[in-house]
Amino acid sequence: MTQPIMVGISACLLGEPVRCDGGHKRDRYITDTLGEYFSFVPVCPEVGCGLPIPREAMRLEGDPAAPRLVTRRTHIDLTEQMLVFCAAKVDELEHAGLCGFIFKKDSPSSGLFRVKVYNNGQAQKNGSGLFAAAMARRFPLLPMEEEGRLNDPDIRENFIERIFSYRRWKDFLAAAPSVGRLVQFHTAHKLLMMAHSPVAYRELGVLVAHASELPLADLLRSYETHFMKAVALHATVKKNTNVLQHIMGYFKQQLSADEKVELLEVIGRYHDHLLPLIVPMTLLSHYINKYDQQYLKGQVYLNPHPFHLMLRNHV
Predict the structure, then answer these.
(1) What's the total number of domains in the chain?
(2) CA–CA gap between residue 140 and residue 126 (Å, rounded)
(3) pLDDT tens-digit profile of 228-255?
(4) What pTM value is reported for the model?
C-alpha cells in the first residue's frame, strides 16, 4: 500500500488540547504504534461546532434514540448547533478516503457505545454521541471503534484487520475493477473469510459465481456490503483452527510423519489456548515457502496486517 491509510480520530486522542477543561487524552498506542501505518484525520465536534476552550461540560438527555446535547450546569441546549456541524462534517468526510474511525469513549459527541443518557436525573449507558451516531448512519460499513475498547486484544485485532481489509477493497475499486479481478480478490481472501465466517464466504462465492447476471456497479456494491459485514465478525479460535488444518492439508504429500505430528500438536495447543496464533502460522509459513505453495502464498490470511503490530501474538 503506497498511499497512507486515512483513519478518522477524535482529536483529543492525538494530544490536541481540545477537551472542555483544555486538556487532552493522548493515546500512545494510537499515536506511536498505529501512527506508523495510519494517517489520522482529527475531528473535535465540540470545537468544530464553534464552542470555546475551555467550556462547560455537556451531557446527553432524553430519548437515547434522539438525545439532546445539554450543558451540565446551565442546561443550555446545544443539540441543533451540534447537528448542523455533524451534517456538514460527514459530507466533508465522504471525500476523505477514510478506512476507519477511532472515537473517544463516553463522549456526548464522540462516544460510539454505551454513552450515558440522562432522564429525570438518572443515567443509563444506552446512547451514542451525536457525531458518532451521524458517522455510523452515513458510513455503515466503515470500521469504527472506541479507543478504550482497543485494550481488548480480540477487538483490537478485528478492528485493525477490518481497516486493512477495507483499504484493500478500496484499492481494488480504484484499479479498473472487473468481474475477473473480483474473482481474484475473492480467491485471495478465501482463508481470511473462512476464519471470520464460512457462511459469508459461501454466500459471497454464490454472488461471484452469478456475477454476469448483475450490472457491475450493483455487483460491487453487494460484494462490498457482504465482505465488510463478514470481516466485522470476529475470527474465533475454532474457526482459525479449521483454517490451519485446511492449510495443512496442502502438504499431506510432502510432510513426514513426524512433521505432521508436530504440526498437529502445535495447532492443538493453539486450539487449547496454550499458544498464540503466530506459532502455528509461523510453522505453516515455513512449509509454504519450503514447498513453494503458490496458491497459499497468495492468501491474504497469511499477512492481513503488518507483522510488527503483533496482533496474532496474544493467547
Answers:
(1) 2
(2) 19
(3) 999 999 999 999 999 999 999 999 899 9
(4) 0.95
